[in-house]
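Retry 2 of 3 after timeout on previous attempt. Resubmitting structure tokens to design endpoint.
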């Protein structure tokens, strides 16, 4: 369960929070620890110790903007220093187009917390709606090991089942375990909350969490605490996002990084044009696949067996314009300015702009 303002959660009473967590089988609390360059003192060693003594895990989450990425990394590391069991990066529209900032943030964070400390990204679930968001940076090797998309089906205006199918199809290309983040706010019906939990089991999610404690009704808490039956015979509906000439956005950036690892090198642009089409055909020929020039499920399967080329994203002097990627040998990082796709607007904001209580800024 996610907590935004601790003092507004059961009056800030840790014993009360612990008792309610036990009553409804909540094992981990995600508590806000920072906003931009500002550390939130509510996430402190005393709180973490109290929750640990009660048998609960205490994870920190910070809202990041990208204007001061190195300072944001320091704020995240401070929560780790204060005992957080994991750290969640809540990055949303402010980070769209900010490839260099995302690279600076995640690189500095790893320097501060180490390569194996558990980090998750909580971002928009529908990757195809956000072509400029740097998923490929936050979720790259050496970045966040977990993907915790905000699967707020009711806010998005879809069914629980369609939400799962779309989210998993769009996110599985990044090869990170998906931990669904569901909604108990906005009048989410109890039956749909139960369905969300059942689908989390069916999709073999390592864990599921909920936004947020302050907006969860008594009936919703009960829906979280009671056992749910498994879905007999249910088959998760997942695929891979097809890409081809005319496609653009971060999914293309990711595919171009994978192609680079296969020896099919070109500038990392985020645009699927003739050059990418030719390199996909070449890759398909080398793997005995139909040479369509488009990335279908079979081609994704072969591409995802590779480790994507590491990209060191740097700021450009005249805007986010792609430059030819360069490398000093096969193992050296590619150095590139933000891809041209970083200038694309979001196709849709599937989750309506959050009220202050959910956006995470200081009240």
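Retry 2 succeeded. Sequence:
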């Amino acid at each position: 369960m996610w907590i935004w303002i601790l003092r507004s959660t059961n009056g800030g009473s840790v014993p009360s929070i612990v008792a309610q967590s036990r009553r409804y089988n909540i094992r981990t609390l995600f508590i806000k620890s920072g906003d931009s360059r500002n550390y939130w003192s509510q996430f402190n060693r005393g709180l973490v110790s109290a929750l640990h003594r009660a048998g609960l895990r205490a994870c920190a989450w910070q809202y990041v903007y990208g204007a001061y990425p190195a300072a944001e990394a320091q704020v995240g590391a401070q929560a780790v220093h204060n005992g957080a069991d994991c750290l969640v990066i809540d990055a949303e529209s402010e980070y769209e187009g900010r490839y260099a900032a995302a690279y600076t943030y995640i690189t500095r964070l790893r320097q501060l917390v180490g390569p194996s400390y558990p980090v998750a990204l909580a971002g928009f679930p529908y990757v195809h709606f956000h072509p400029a968001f740097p998923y490929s940076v936050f979720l790259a090797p050496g970045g966040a090991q977990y993907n915790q998309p905000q699967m707020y089906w009711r806010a998005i205006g879809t069914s629980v089942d369609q939400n799962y199918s779309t989210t998993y199809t769009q996110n599985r290309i990044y090869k990170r375990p998906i931990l669904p983040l569901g909604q108990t706010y906005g009048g989410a019906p109890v039956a749909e909350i139960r369905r969300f939990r059942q689908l989390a089991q069916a999709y073999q999610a390592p864990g599921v969490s909920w936004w947020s404690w302050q907006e969860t009704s008594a009936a919703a808490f009960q829906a979280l605490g009671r056992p749910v039956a498994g879905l007999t015979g249910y088959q998760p509906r997942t695929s891979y996002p097809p890409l081809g000439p005319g496609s653009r956005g971060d999914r293309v950036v990711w595919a171009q990084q994978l192609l680079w690892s296969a020896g099919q090198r070109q500038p990392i642009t985020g645009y699927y044009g003739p050059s990418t089409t030719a390199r996909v055909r070449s890759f398909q020929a080398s793997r005995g696949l139909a040479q369509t020039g488009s990335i279908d499920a079979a081609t994704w399967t072969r591409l995802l067996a590779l480790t994507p080329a590491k990209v060191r994203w740097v700021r450009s002097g005249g805007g986010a314009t792609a430059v030819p990627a360069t490398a000093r040998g096969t193992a050296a990082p590619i150095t590139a300015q933000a891809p041209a796709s970083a200038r694309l607007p979001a196709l849709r904001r599937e989750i309506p702009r959050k009220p202050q209580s959910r956006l995470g800024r200081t009240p």
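Attempt log closed. The first strand starts at residue 2 and ends at 3.
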